[in-house]
Amino acid sequence: CPSGAAYKREEDGVVLIDQKRCRSWRYCVSSCPYKKPYYNWASGKMEKCILCYPRIESGMPPVCFHSCVGKIRSFGLIFYDMDRVEEAALAEDKDLVEAQRDIILDPFDPEVIAGAKESGISDDWIDAAQRSPVYKIVKKWELALPLHPEFRTLPSLFYIPPLAPITTSAGKNTPTSTDIFDMDKPEEGPLLSLDEMDKFRVPFKYLAGMFGAGNEEVVKKTLLRQLAVRHYGRSIRVDGKPNLEVLERVGLTEEDAKGIIRAFSLAFYDERFVVPNAKREEADISPYTERGFAGFDTMNPWSPMKRKKSSHKSYHTGSKDYE
């Protein structure tokens, strides 16, 4: 954005466009890898999804997450190492997905918890990070991938590559050919083979270009894990006993499979959306709150402003305490 109208909020990572600074040059339309900004012909300004940031500040998920009838959206927070952001952004294209996953921190690690508290993160935010479905889907199970990581914008939204269209089309070259769910291939095992994965309706190169910066292995890994969980669930329902071999082949445990099944099909509202309150009223620096309390000659721009504990005492009262 040549005018500097587009910016990313530090507190939650939501990207907004300042309507006062926008000059409608529309460079954001051509440069945005996610194709989110659009030109409002009525107002003559650029606009985009604001991710319902007032709802996020109040501890509620965005409306599109809340009203999704398919329940395919999850919302939560993750801890990441801010000192390693540059390292992740400078990684090679084939290593971008792993580099972005590596900077995501484990919220159960005692060192991470201690560092979060030193950074001013409250206990309820730490608890929300531990219950976050996003951490499990992106980091623990490695199912979700960032959209166009080659642009190195460190996105906050992750996507799970589609699986439903491919399982109904692969392996059906002729009406009598074997379907994937028959699993009648003892020489290859119960899981889909890599040669059959090349017959998918959605080409791997296309998915890898969207979610893996050209790296097909990360896309194959997440699709194989989805298929493994599907075979695991089918073995319990049809055969009456869990097929753990198919999970071991893709690096999952039975506990992981049960967690994935619950997260994607049985999770309750409070499991899919873990949004802590932003606590805007407790912010250390609040220029809007402090307006009119001091002139420009008495304010030091390099030191935090003093917040009044009480609004019922005059500003010059000597006994009044500040936070």
Automatic annotation (TrEMBL):
> What are the boundaries of the region Disordered?
300-323
Q: Where, by residue number, does the polypeptide cross the bilayer?
A: none
InterPro entries per record: 4Fe4S_Fe-S-bd (IPR017896), Nitr_red_bet_C (IPR029263), Nitr_red_bet_C_sf (IPR038262)
GO MF entries: 4 iron, 4 sulfur cluster binding; electron transfer activity; metal ion binding
Q: Which compartments does it reside in?
A: Cell envelope
Q: Which cofactor does it need?
A: [3Fe-4S] cluster; [4Fe-4S] cluster
UniProt keywords (A-Z) are: 4Fe-4S, Electron transport, Iron, Iron-sulfur, Metal-binding, Repeat, Transport
Where's the 4Fe-4S ferredoxin-type domain? Answer: 13-42
List the biased-composition ranges (Basic residues).
305-315
Write out the GO cellular component annotations: cell envelope; membrane
| Major localization listed first in the record, in broad terms | other
> Could you state one GO biological process linked to this protein?
anaerobic respiration
Q: What is this protein called?
A: 4Fe-4S ferredoxin-type domain-containing protein
Please tell me the species this chain comes from.
marine sediment metagenome
